[in-house]
C-alpha cells in the first residue's frame, strides 16, 4: 500500500518524469501536491497501469490535487544538455509552475539537481511507494503520450501513436529507412544488434 507522502511537517510535492529512454520527442515531468488523507483506488506507478487505467486516474488527480503542474524539455534541449540534465530541468519547470509553492520535494529516482531553497529527498522506485510521486508519474506519462499521439499525425511512418517514441524494433527500422524526423534526439543511438538481426532475417 502506497503512503500519502514521505514526511508530514512540510507541504510536499511529488515529482517524476516520463520519456527519458525515448528516441524522439520531449521529456515530460510533473509535480503534484496532494491533500492530506488523499485516497484514490488504483493509484500506482504509471508503469504498472494500463493506458485505460491512467486515463481514468488523470482527471481525478488533476481535480483533487492541491496543486499540480506539467512541464517538458524538447529534443533540442535534450541534445544540448543531455537527457539527465533535461529531466532535472523539466522537473524544475514543473515545480516552478505550481500555483501553491511546496516546502519539500520528493523525487522518483536516485539523483536530482537541487531546486533553489526547497529541500528534497530522492526515492528509488518512489512511484511505487508514495501517492504524490505515483500521481506525478501518471500526469507526466499521460501528458507526454498525448503529445506524441498528436505528433504522430504529421509523422505516421514512425508509429508514435503506438510506441510514443520509445525504441521499439519497428521504430528503429523506420528511422533507418526514413531517416531522422525533426523531433528525433540526434544524440541517441538508433541502431541495435537485435535490429540488425531482424533486418537480415526480414
Automatic annotation (TrEMBL):
Location of the protein in the cell: Cytoplasm
Catalyzed reactions: Endonucleolytic cleavage to 5'-phosphomonoester
Organism: Pedobacter suwonensis
Residues of the RNase H type-2 domain: 10-200
Annotated a divalent metal cation binding sites: 16-17, 108
Matches recorded under PROSITE patterns: RNASE_H_2 (PS51975)
Coiled coil: none
GO BP annotation list: DNA replication, removal of RNA primer; mismatch repair
Function in brief: Endonuclease that specifically degrades the RNA of RNA-DNA hybrids.
HAMAP family: RNase_HII_B
Keywords: Cytoplasm, Endonuclease, Hydrolase, Manganese, Metal-binding, Nuclease
GO-annotated molecular function: manganese ion binding; RNA binding; RNA-DNA hybrid ribonuclease activity
Family per record: Belongs to the RNase HII family.
Record field: transmembrane: none
Listed EC numbers: 3.1.26.4
Cofactors named for this entry: Mg(2+); Mn(2+)
Identification of the protein by name: Ribonuclease HII
Annotated NCBIfam families: PRK00015.1-3
Record's cofactor remark: Manganese or magnesium. Binds 1 divalent metal ion per monomer in the absence of substrate. May bind a second metal ion after substrate binding.
GO cellular component: cytoplasm; ribonuclease H2 complex
Amino acid at each position: 500500500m502506497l503512503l500519502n507522502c514521505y514526511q508530514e511537517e512540510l507541504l510536499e510535492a511529488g515529482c517524476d518524469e516520463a520519456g527519458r529512454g525515448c528516441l524522439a520527442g520531449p521529456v515530460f515531468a510533473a509535480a503534484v501536491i496532494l491533500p492530506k488523507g488523499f485516497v484514490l483506488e488504483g493509484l500506482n506507478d504509471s508503469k504498472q497501469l494500463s493506458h485505460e487505467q491512467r486515463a481514468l486516474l488523470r482527471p481525478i488527480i488533476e481535480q483533487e490535487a492541491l496543486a499540480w503542474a506539467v512541464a517538458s524539455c524538447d529534443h533540442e534541449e535534450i541534445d544540448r544538455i543531455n537527457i539527465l540534465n533535461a529531466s532535472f530541468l523539466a522537473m524544475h519547470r514543473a515545480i516552478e509552475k505550481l500555483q501553491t509553492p511546496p516546502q519539500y520535494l520528493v523525487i522518483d529516482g536516485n539523483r536530482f539537481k537541487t531546486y533553489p531553497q526547497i529541500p528534497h529527498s530522492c526515492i528509488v522506485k518512489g512511484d511505487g511507494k508514495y501517492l504524490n510521486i505515483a500521481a506525478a508519474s501518471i500526469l507526466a506519462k499521460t501528458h507526454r503520450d498525448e503529445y506524441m499521439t498528436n505528433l504522430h499525425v504529421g509523422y505516421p511512418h514512425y508509429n508514435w501513436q503506438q510506441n510514443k517514441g520509445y525504441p521499439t524494433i519497428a521504430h528503429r527500422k523506420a528511422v533507418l529507412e526514413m531517416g531522422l524526423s525533426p523531433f528525433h534526439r540526434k544524440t541517441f543511438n538508433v541502431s541495435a544488434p537485435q535490429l540488425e538481426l531482424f533486418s537480415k532475417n526480414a
